[in-house]
Structure formats: structure tokens, C-alpha cells
Amino acid sequence: MSEHSLTIALSKGRIFEETLPLLAAAGIEPAENPEQSRKLIIGTNRTHIRLVIVRATDVPTYVQYGAADFGIAGKDVLTEHGGEGLYQPLDLQIARCRMMVAVPEGFDYARASQPGKRLRIATKYPDIAAGHFAAKGVHVDIIKLYGSMELAPLVGLSDAIVDLVSTGNTLKANKLQAVEHISDISSRLVVNKAALKVKYAAIQPIIDAFSHAATADDQPPNI
Ligand code: PRT
Ligand code: MG
């Protein structure tokens, strides 16, 4: 890739959808919709700018190693990744949700989570979960899962889960209830530190356009 070309890492789904208006504000239009196309590299109306479509959890890795110059990733993903090699100039306020502890309806969480007790927690976010319970002085055994955390307490794999909640419909459909709010989550712009120096003239105007669009757009909280 030449000094003048830019590669942006995005995930399909909610992040791609909510990033489209930000890209538009920077004058960037994807040539294809990744939901319909199987292509992993998507061109744009700007010949030197392309998008790479990766798993949400892989965005920081592509940017960290410079395979993408910048990308957009959830705070959940960035916290678990650690953020090494990444400059995080902007909270874009998109893909908002909350990191919560949830348990089966009727489970006595207050009693089970007293200091000195031991809880089994299923989660995709072991670092966030471990940090939360350590701060409370509750001992936990963390069971790492890669999806469908909601199932774990229903089949006896865990007492509770640590997961993202937006509408609450998934918890409700599985007779679970949120019992603790760990943090608010939104997505951030992440930039490769070396790329920012070398391609500053190409990257900074995009950061500025994103920043302007993210703050101008006075989005009501969806949580
Ligand atoms: O889905 P896939 O396994 O391919 O990847 P992913 O889950 O890593 O990606 P994706 O696209 O689903 O999520 C990307 C980012 O969106 C996450 O890293 C979060 O920062 C953010 N985000 C915002 C969410 C949600 N809201 C959300 N509700 N990510 C996941 N969820 C899931 C949640 O895990 C739970 O299973 O949606 C379900 C709950 O939703 P409600 O509306 O029923 O409460
Ligand atoms: Mg998902």
C-alpha cells in the first residue's frame, strides 16, 4: 500500500450500518454492501480508500499490525484487546449498549454475590468480568464462551453471565434479568499510531469529519 492509500477495518452488521453516515460525512461511499457481497475487500468512491470487512473482535488486531490504517471497534472489544499500538482519538457514540451482569429470573444474586462467596460466570469478556468481581471482592470462576452466553445459566454451565444488553429482549426471551450495570459501551475510532504519522494528511481530515458528524448528530440515548 502506498503512502497515499488508506485501508479502513470495519465489521458487518450494526457497526457497518452506523458507520455509513460517518463515512458519508467524510465523503466516502462504499461500492458494495458487505451484507450482500461476499467480498472481504470493498472499494469506495475514493479510489485510494478501501474497506476490509473483519470480525468485530479482530478490528483492533488488523489496526495494531498496520494491515488497516484505522478502524471502528466497540469499547468492549478494545478493553479485552488491551489497545496496544492503537491511538483512540474519538468516541463515536455508535453501537451503544451496556455491559451487564444477568442471572436467571428468581436467582438470589444479592445473596450469591456477597464477599467471600464463589460464583461461576460465563462470558465472552473474561478481563472485564474478572475486573468487575475483583473490585467487589467476589470470587469468580470465569468460563470463556464465544457466543450465546444467555444459554449458559439455563443449562447449569454458570450461575450468571456478563454480556452486552441493548433492548433487553434477548434476556427477557430467555427468562434472565440484569442485576448489575458494569459500564456503558459505545464504539471508538482506532488508528494505527505509525500510520497516523506517515499518512497524517490523508487520515486527519477523516478524523475531523467523523468527529464533526458524531457530535453534530445529537443522538438520543438508545439505552
Ligand atoms: O455477532 P458476531 O459474533 O459476528 O460478532 P460480534 O458480536 O462481536 O459483533 P456484533 O456486530 O454483533 O457487535 C459489534 C459491537 O456492537 C460489539 O462489540 C458492541 O460494542 C456493539 N453492540 C451494541 C452489541 C450490542 N449492542 C448487542 N446488543 N454487541 C452485541 N450485542 C448482543 C449481545 O451480546 C446480546 O447477545 O445482542 C444481544 C442483546 O441484545 P438485546 O437488544 O436483545 O438486548
Ligand atoms: Mg453479535
TrEMBL record:
EC number: 2.4.2.17
GO biological processes: L-histidine biosynthetic process
Keywords linked to the UniProt accession: Amino-acid biosynthesis, ATP-binding, Cytoplasm, Glycosyltransferase, Histidine biosynthesis, Nucleotide-binding, Transferase
The keyword Transferase is assigned to this record: yes
Lineage: superkingdom: Bacteria
Subcellular location, record wording: Cytoplasm
One GO molecular-function entry: ATP phosphoribosyltransferase activity
Pathway(s) of this molecule: Amino-acid biosynthesis; L-histidine biosynthesis; L-histidine from 5-phospho-alpha-D-ribose 1-diphosphate: step 1/9
Pfam families linked to this entry: HisG
ATP phosphoribosyltransferase catalytic domain boundaries: 55-210
Cellular component GO terms held in the UniProt record: cytoplasm
SUPFAM superfamilies (alphabetical): Periplasmic binding protein-like II
Primary location group: cytoplasm
Catalyzed reactions per annotation: 1-(5-phospho-beta-D-ribosyl)-ATP + diphosphate = 5-phospho-alpha-D-ribose 1-diphosphate + ATP
Record remark: domains: Lacks the C-terminal regulatory region which is replaced by HisZ.
Protein family membership: Belongs to the ATP phosphoribosyltransferase family. Short subfamily.
Cited function: Catalyzes the condensation of ATP and 5-phosphoribose 1-diphosphate to form N'-(5'-phosphoribosyl)-ATP (PR-ATP). Has a crucial role in the pathway because the rate of histidine biosynthesis seems to be controlled primarily by regulation of HisG enzymatic activity.
Subunit structure comment from the entry: Heteromultimer composed of HisG and HisZ subunits.
HAMAP family to which the protein is assigned, alphabetical: HisG_Short
Protein name: ATP phosphoribosyltransferase
Taxonomy of the source species: Bacteria, Pseudomonadati, Pseudomonadota, Betaproteobacteria, Neisseriales
